[in-house]
Amino acid sequence: MWGQSNFHGFGMKLEQRPIHGFSCLLAYTFSKAIDNASTFNAGPQ
Question: Is the pTM of this model over 0.90?
């Protein structure tokens, strides 16, 4: 029997061009991994 795994990721970048010598950069990353095999065959806990 094999396990299953899923990975979801999202990235976003917002950048403002320089105005009067000031610029702004904002970056965000989100990721999520789901599986049902990490503890497969791990024995009693």
Answer: no
